[in-house]
Amino acid sequence: MPQIPTVIGLLVCEKAIVEEGTKNVSLVNCFTRLKVGGFPSARRQFAVYAALTDGVGDIALTLVVQRLDTTGDVFRESRTLRFADRLQEVRFLFRVANCLFPVAGPYDVILFADQSELARHRIRIG
User: Fold this and answer.
1) Fewer CB within 10 Å, N or C, the chain?
2) Residue 115 is part of a domain; what is its CATH number?
3) Model's pTM, two decimal places?
4) 22 CB-contact burial (10 Å; exposed 0-12 / middle 13-18 / buried 19+)
5) What is the span of the domain harbouring residue 77?
6) How many domains in the chain?
């Protein structure tokens, strides 16, 4: 029976680099504030990184970027991650492409597992 994982940490960065040999991840320019030229913004790319543990089985993870003024989604995509055993730490790296921010203000980056919220990171777009 699948078991929902626990999030150790969730970060939003301009980019992430995965080292070929070790598979270690370097996060570049982690942010809580992002400047854009105007609104609606040009389509933006960024990376979301989470470390997860205590999961078991195949778990559907959904990443959502949500406006706080309307609670409407500006980005939503799902992927399935496999957890071999609950002691394993699984690194989740999600490269967001083509995220358009319609207005200035706060947005939440939210990670869900099978409809349950795991973690949230607030960013401000200006």
Assistant:
1) N
2) 2.60.40.10
3) 0.94
4) exposed
5) 6-125
6) 1
